Amino acid sequence: MTTSNPIQEKKQQGSFELHCLACKNPMTFSLLDLDQHPIACSECGKRYSFGEETLKRQLKKFATLCRAIQESEEILGSGGIALTVGNDEVKIPFKILLTRLKSTLDLSIGNERMVISFRVEPVAL
Ligand SMILES: [Zn+2]
């Protein structure tokens, strides 16, 4: 384990990514941006406001979850979840959460549905 330093911690805050509903341009923003002014698409200028408390809360929880998954990497290798698919039980190691699963959250903003993904920078070991 490396000792944490402020710069590394900031990096590990991670960032949200969504595709602009109007032009599909990928937009990224951080947790800190949620408290700021509306976030505008750099391509078409469409603005997204994440100021609503419920929305902000959900996004923060989502980020916390994603970071917790990554921070638990050490023990995830030996844990897993079992899903029942039809009559079969499928075991999925938590490890897959780190490598295969794209962490996404479906949100309704106004009348629009959007999918936001979260990326945590890879931890330097
Ligand atoms: Zn756009």
Give a structural overview.
The chain is an alpha+beta fold and 125 residues long. The protein has a domain at 12-73 and 101-119. Helix content is 27%, strand content 31%. The protein contains 4 helices and 8 strands; from the N terminus they run H-E-E-E-E-H-H-E-E-H-E-E. It has helices at residues 6-11, 53-71, 73-76, 95-99, and strands at 15-19, 26-29, 39-40, 47-48, 80-85, 88-93, 104-109, 112-119. The strands form 3 sheets. The protein has a 4-stranded antiparallel sheet, with helices on one face. It has a two-stranded antiparallel sheet with strand order 3-4. Strand 7 and strand 8 form a beta hairpin. The longest helix is centred in the middle third of the chain and has 19 residues, at 53-71. 4% of the residues are buried. The model has no long low-confidence stretch (mean pLDDT 79). Bound molecules: zinc ion (ZN). Zinc ion (ZN) binds at residues 20, 22-23, 25, 41, 43-44, 46. Zinc ion binds at residues 20, 22-23, 25, 41, 43-44, 46.
**Major sheet strand order:** 2-1-8-7
**Largest sheet descriptor:** 4 strands, antiparallel
Care to count the β-strands? 8
What is the arithmetic mean of pLDDT?
79
Decide which structural class fits the backbone.
alpha+beta
* Number of helical elements: 4
- In N-to-C order, the SSE pattern is HEEEEHHEEHEE
Radius of gyration: 17 Å
Strand content: 25-35%
Low-confidence stretches are none
The rough form would be described as elongated
What is bound: which ligands?
zinc ion
| Cα end-to-end separation | 7 Å
Helix content: 25-40%
